[in-house]
Amino acid sequence: MQKKLSIGVDVGGSHISCKVIDLNTRQLGNVGFNSLPMNNQGSKESVFETFAELINPCIQQVGKENVVGIGLAFPGPIDYENGVGQFTGENSKYQNLNQVNIREELRDRVDIAGDQIRFINDATAFAAGEYFNGELTGSCRSLAITLGTGFGAAFLDMGVPVISDEKVPEGGCLWHLPFDKGIADDYFSTRGLVERFNVLSNRYVEGVKEMAELYSTNHIAQEVFTDFGNKLALFLRPWLQKFEVDKMVIGGNISRAFHLFEGALNHGLKQTGLNVLVKPSSRLEDSAFIGAAMLLDDDFYQSVKEQLKRM
Questions:
Q1: pLDDT per residue over 231-244, tens digit each?
Q2: Structural domains in the chain?
Q3: What is the distance, to the nearest Å, from the Cα of residue 83 to the centroid of all Cα atoms in its chain?
Q4: pTM to 2 decimals?
């Protein structure tokens, strides 16, 4: 069987990474992995130099003749259909790519045809990867959320992202919805979780990992994680009901502490009769690689192409 390799690129605020996926088997390859720090405030030229430094060695390693294209899981806002940045500064990332045709810039640096460079929202890429080769396999209607620097979400109907539908929020996202005294992104994120612990405990931790290490002996850490599970259930319940979700997966750094808020989350969901199978991702970033790389599978790409216009 002829090799059909796709390079999945996960674009973050502080680093970018790539892995090779065999589209014939939908499995990650054991070659081609690369990861580099990224200055998202850097000049346009420096950003694309980093992309080239990441991707070109990967292409060389697996052989250009075997590479059918590149799929990028990119945080918004982007015109995902045309690959044009729309970074006006509201999320303080990649402002120097605003109104830049990222597809054309990459094409000139990595020697891959422009129509073989495709883009998808990073949270949606994670969800698609979980559907193809993860916790959402076999699901009819599913929800994938990522809890970390921000609060990402994607609703899937048989693996296809649902962006515009009365059963999902505007844009198929959850981060922007009102919650508590702000928006969901403020509460269900690393900064929200850590800030609540620091205020209540009158001590300072930098991240969720430190909080989790304190859990067994610190009652405030226990209270904060329990509150997180309770409030996440409260926030998600209406959308899980409307979309009739049967499976939900949680990714992002906070998912590593899932066992500390799992009980509260499941209790909160079952209180209203919801029977949703909730699991943490065992693949994490790998799912984003798979979801992005699958854009080069023409059947999948055709199924999501219309949705890319609305992301």
A1: 999 999 999 999 99
A2: 5-125+286-308 (3.30.420.40), 136-281 (3.30.420.40)
A3: 18
A4: 0.90
